[in-house]
Amino acid sequence: MQQWIESWFHSPVGWDTSYGEWSVLCATITWMIWKARCKRVFEAVDPNALNIIFAALNYIQLYSTDKPTVAPNTQLNIVRTWSPPPVGFFKINFDASYIINNDHIGIGLVLRDYMGVCRGCKMIPSSSLSAEEAEGMAALEAVKWAKALQLQQVYFEGDAKTIINYLSASTIARQIGWRTKGHLDDIQALTLSFTSVSFYYVPRDVNSVADALASRARASTSEVLSTSPPSFIFAIPGYAGGKCPRILFQTLIRGYICTSATRKP
């Protein structure tokens, strides 16, 4: 334990400073380990090593002076890069996977909190007659999920401009299909029960996690709800802002083993 803590004050050779100051990162990871242990003891939630690392990285990013910001556009609410929502808010990214001449679609949803920690994922197989309707259905499923979880302050992000344009009401949306309009009108009715709701357009690469979940859902025959992130999304660059450096993973494992070794039976 002592040796591990002493290593905080000496950055490893080749450390990429873009991930932040080494000592700050180590201290934040330790705090996240402690929080994970508390959840294990009091809520019976098993810790996930990579989730702890990403939570630490996002926490540092959240309170840094140069963290990514939401860039509004006069025509559409646009997010240029993925970032956690403000403190007290949640963010749901949604997407649909659709193939022409095949009505079988997949819907992918990922819920994350203000520290960027994944709080749940949904993969929903369904059917649709168009890509536009599929995206509208994905947006509706995202809002219904947030309502079922009794969330009050939520950001929704998707990569379908027409859908976000209609829901954000920033401009007059172009003509959309009556099927799609029915889903979007249902969304607007549901959002009246929330304290704060915002819809943002994101480029496809920023929405890569929801996209991957949607693709998996299209190949499935039943809905999947997971309270922890599926293992395959950790390799997606868009998850938690990027890939996790191996040295961070090694540092976390060392710290987790050290703190676990001190636990009394």
From TrEMBL:
<dbReference type="GO" id="GO:0004523">
    <property type="term" value="F:RNA-DNA hybrid ribonuclease activity"/>
</dbReference>
<dbReference type="Pfam" id="PF13456">
    <property type="entry name" value="RVT_3"/>
</dbReference>
<dbReference type="InterPro" id="IPR036397">
    <property type="entry name" value="RNaseH_sf"/>
</dbReference>
<protein>
    <recommendedName>
        <fullName>RNase H type-1 domain-containing protein</fullName>
    </recommendedName>
</protein>
<feature type="domain" description="RNase H type-1">
    <location>
        <begin position="93"/>
        <end position="217"/>
    </location>
</feature>
<dbReference type="InterPro" id="IPR044730">
    <property type="entry name" value="RNase_H-like_dom_plant"/>
</dbReference>
<dbReference type="GO" id="GO:0003676">
    <property type="term" value="F:nucleic acid binding"/>
</dbReference>
<dbReference type="InterPro" id="IPR012337">
    <property type="entry name" value="RNaseH-like_sf"/>
</dbReference>
<dbReference type="InterPro" id="IPR052929">
    <property type="entry name" value="RNase_H-like_EbsB-rel"/>
</dbReference>
<dbReference type="InterPro" id="IPR002156">
    <property type="entry name" value="RNaseH_domain"/>
</dbReference>
